Amino acid sequence: MSSLVKVAAVHAAPVFLDRSATTAKAISILREAANAGAELVAFPETYIPAFPVWAALWAPIDNHDLFTLMAEQSVSLHGPEIAALRREARTLGVIVSMGISESSSASVGAIWNSNILIGSNGDILNHHRKLVPTFYEKLVWAPGDGAGLRVSSTSIGRIGNLICGENTNPLARYTLMAQAEQIHISSWPPMWPTRRPSSGGNFNNVAANRIRASAHSFEAKAYGIVTAGYMDASMRDFLVARDPSVVEVIDRTQRAASFFVDPTGEAVGDLLQDQEGIAYAEFDLTRCIEPKQFHDVVGYYNRFDVFDLTVNRKRLKPATFLDIADTPAASETDESNTLDDALSRSSNGGRLDA
Known about the structure:
alpha/beta, 6-stranded mixed beta sheet, 9 helices, globular, Nitrilases_CHs, C-N_Hydrolase_sf, C-N_Hydrolase, CN hydrolase domain-containing protein
């Protein structure tokens, strides 16, 4: 394993609420990044099919149709979108971190904010569901569980991921640190409206994400990939056409940025904010070792006799069917549970052969 790794953060818009077209766009981006030499390509939060920014703009009683569309366009772990991404990852020989809105085979209306890590041979290395939807996201997504709180061992290093506000959760972050994480991916939406401009506007979201990324990398002594969504003209036009009164909120809310930090928390590589594209950086993973001399918070620089953390990585299920072995064929739910059980049993960070 070479210590030098070229990585890519995708700063791109989806084809808004169209999972098939967005998957096709993602594959095109993967090919471009692979041609540029990237070995790991990280996409933003719920890139497929979109981030539900409307939950910040209108009351839920006005969003029933958008929730329905979001649920219909969400992605199954065993659906054609993930299958296409797995094939492309294997063909290109790249590792892919993809944010999806994940559908449930147990309910037509339950969806999760999820991340799928796909290996360079097309294996699903990890399947993480966001532990707690943040603020207005609670109107869209169900809470996840701890099954995906794992670091995956790959040919380019040990990779972990947390989604958006999870990067503010010290225990979730420590859970990944305690698995020898070397590359930490944090994925974000294209914008995060929290106030109307007339009432003081938003906090500095770019600065906040930089603080969170740098803090984690400094504490973990790991490299950080910050990959954020992008709002293109078609997404903006869709929202404004629905209700022109939101134009000020949309246009005066700061756009997110995609960038990278090193194990000391310093910026490295490209930064993208106001234009769509792919940001690149080169990581030298040997630089994750020396800072451990200063503070190894999962090694000597801790008091395990004072502090004790237990993490439940069991995949939560709505029901357990004891007669399932008697059925002619396993349902998608059972296939998903089999996958998650295999990930839990895996001894190499969550790798599962296709």
